[in-house]
Specification:
Blueprint (H helix, E strand, L loop, with lengths): L10 H14 L4 H22 L1 H6 L13 H4 L7 H7 L15 E6 L7 E6 H17 L8 E5 L13 E3 L4 H4 L7 E5 L4 H11 L3 E4 L1 H14 L8 E4 L6 H11 L3 E7 L3 E6 L6 E3 L4 E6 L11 E8 L10 E9 L11 E8 L4 E2 L5 E2 L14 E10 L2 E8 L5 H15 L4 E6 L14 E3 H4 L2
Parallel strand pairs: 3-5, 3-6, 6-7, 7-8, 17-20, 18-19
Antiparallel strand pairs: 1-2, 4-5, 8-9, 9-10, 10-14, 11-12, 12-13, 13-14, 15-16, 17-18
Length: about 450
């Protein structure tokens, strides 16, 4: 959001959206789909009329009263990649944004793909972002009077990059123009984990937002020290894949549950964790999200496919069938009765898949939080450096014995397969990406890096 103009997000508009969301979450799937198709059609018409990129790209698209949009027709539209966005530049943007959509602002993101992109967002799109932020808070019954802490990427706050961290009197403009809140505290994830834990014990937050791997490192250190965070009500995660081991660590260390969010800066919220469950619900009122198999067809429940998403309300830079680079597993209809589609889990990116010598791929479930009693590991990253070579980069809690090295090698061989040569390499630190994110597993064979 344009932080210099947060007052331009009208609370009345957000409240109106929240009233709609309170009703629409219970709509049956066919009604929700019809609502999406109407908004998708409006976005297509706007893009074709006001974007130089889409004027050409959609010139042969048959959408209108005689050819109403359907999921089958959506799949006939070309998929938009990050490279497409880079190549198109300003040609992707609308040259005539509807006046009601308000101001625009640039959103720059590289994610963890190494392909930076810039898109524009609007006041209207950010108003809707605020409404979904509130939905997340309300779904999980958060107490706005409690202290909120965030440990993530804060490049513009030098103080946040120190062991003292930084603070604000409230939770920020996405919430406080509607609710009075307690103070918030934030620290950059570049700060060492032991200093992070010391800081959390000093500020005593009710809620903690951070990356899943950072959460696991904090929880493991708490257990190692025999310290707890008794003020914590629950933890929140974003930006990385959250696994069951990380949830279990938070329960063991602090007795709290973890609530995950699935979003992207250039898109907004795509899925939020369902109330009282661990699966996520697609935020279909904001996005049209597809999970596609290798043939480009929709995945059935239990199947894993690539995520392709269309934000329905950002007319400043239309992103029509944008391939975000993630893979997700489709779930069955939500047991709570909500009509929103279910994602059982967000699995990861292509480079997070292990490539077997026979060409098959698997999603390995390995990380420092899954080592259990195998070896005393502070941090672990597994990298497939060659087709048959796996490198285990380890920050040990203490020097390994020969027997522990054998145990670790045997453990990784069992997890990954006998066809790989396991190489153990000790390091002082495993660095995060420039945006503070971290991957337990990465295949350099898959990524081509």
């Amino acid at each position: 959001m344009n932080q210099s103009e947060p007052h331009l997000l009208k609370s009345a508009h957000v409240r109106e959206w929240l009233r709609t969301l309170d009703e629409s979450q219970w709509w049956p799937a066919d009604r929700l789909l019809a609502w999406q198709m109407a908004r998708f059609s409006a976005l297509l018409a706007h893009a074709a009329a006001t974007s130089r990129f889409y004027r050409r790209r959609l010139s042969t698209t048959r959408v209108g009263p005689k050819h109403p949009l359907t999921p089958e027709r959506v799949r006939d539209l070309p998929i938009l990649t990050r490279s497409d966005i880079q190549d198109a530049g300003d040609r992707l943007n609308s040259t005539n944004l509807p006046k009601a959509h308000g101001w625009t602002d640039a959103v720059r993101t590289s994610g963890s793909t190494g392909k930076p992109i810039t898109v524009r967002t609007s006041q209207w799109a950010q108003t809707i972002w605020a409404a979904f932020s509130m939905r997340d808070h309300l779904w999980h019954n958060r107490d706005f009077s409690l202290r909120h802490a965030a440990i993530a990427y804060f490049p513009t706050s030098p103080k946040a990059r120190t062991p003292e961290g930084n603070s604000e009197p409230d939770w920020g403009s996405l919430v406080t123009f509607m609710r009075k809140t307690g103070p918030s505290f934030y620290m950059d994830s570049i700060v060492p984990v032991d200093k992070q834990l010391d800081w959390l014990r000093r500020i005593r937050p009710g809620y903690l937002m951070t990356y899943p791997t950072n959460l696991a490192a904090l929880a493991a250190l708490s257990l190692e020290r025999g310290e707890t965070l008794d003020s914590l009500v629950h933890a929140r995660t974003k930006g990385e894949t959250l696994g069951p081991d990380q949830r279990a660590l938070a329960r063991e260390a602090w007795g709290v549950e973890v609530c995950d969010t699935y979003s992207a800066q250039e898109v907004g919220y795509m899925a939020l964790q369902a109330p009282g469950a661990e699966h996520s619900l697609v935020q279909s009122e904001a996005v049209y999200l597809e999970v596609l198999d290798e043939a480009g067809e929709p995945c059935a429940p239990g199947e894993i496919g690539r995520v392709v998403v269309t934000p329905l309300h950002n007319f400043a830079t239309p992103l029509i069938r944008y391939e975000v680079g993630d893979y997700a597993e489709v779930g069955p209809p939500a047991p709570c009765g909500r009509g929103l589609p279910v994602l059982t889990r967000i699995v990861g990116r292509v480079r997070n898949m292990l490539i077997k010598p026979d060409g098959s791929r698997i999603w390995p479930e390995i990380g420092s939080d899954s080592m259990g009693g195998v070896v005393p590991v502070r941090q672990l990253q597994i990298v497939q450096t060659e087709l048959r070579r796996i490198e285990a980069r380890i920050v040990p809690r203490q020097p390994f014995t020969f027997e522990q090295q054998l145990a670790l090698t045997a453990h990784l061989t069992k997890k990954l397969g006998k066809e790989f040569r396991i190489v153990i390499r000790y390091v002082d630190e495993i660095e995060r990406s420039p945006t503070g994110k971290y991957e337990d597993f990465r295949s350099e064979v898959a990524s081509g890096s």
